[in-house]
Design a protein that fits this description.
Helix content is about 80%, strand content about 0%. The protein has about 60 residues and is mainly α. It has one domain. It is rod-shaped. The chain starts with a helix and ends with a helix.
Length: about 60
């Protein structure tokens, strides 16, 4: 259950990284948006961890089938 919730949160962070970065202070006139990049990296890291959390039970279920 926690893995599914984390996947949803990570997809939200990755999808809206530019908007969240702008809300946190990134300027639109600059090409490098460091806060948006940081949010994207954190979201991708959470997605990686959550996918690994989901992989164990899913592969065990498939082995039972």
């Amino acid at each position: 259950m926690a893995g599914a919730i984390l996947v949803a949160a990570a997809v939200f962070l990755i999808g809206f990284a530019a908007d969240i970065g702008h809300f946190m202070g990134d300027r639109l006139d600059r090409t490098m948006k460091s806060r948006a990049v940081g949010i994207f990296v954190v979201g991708f890291w959470i997605l990686d961890v959550a996918n690994n959390m989901l992989q164990g039970p899913c592969s065990a279920f498939l082995a039972d089938l």
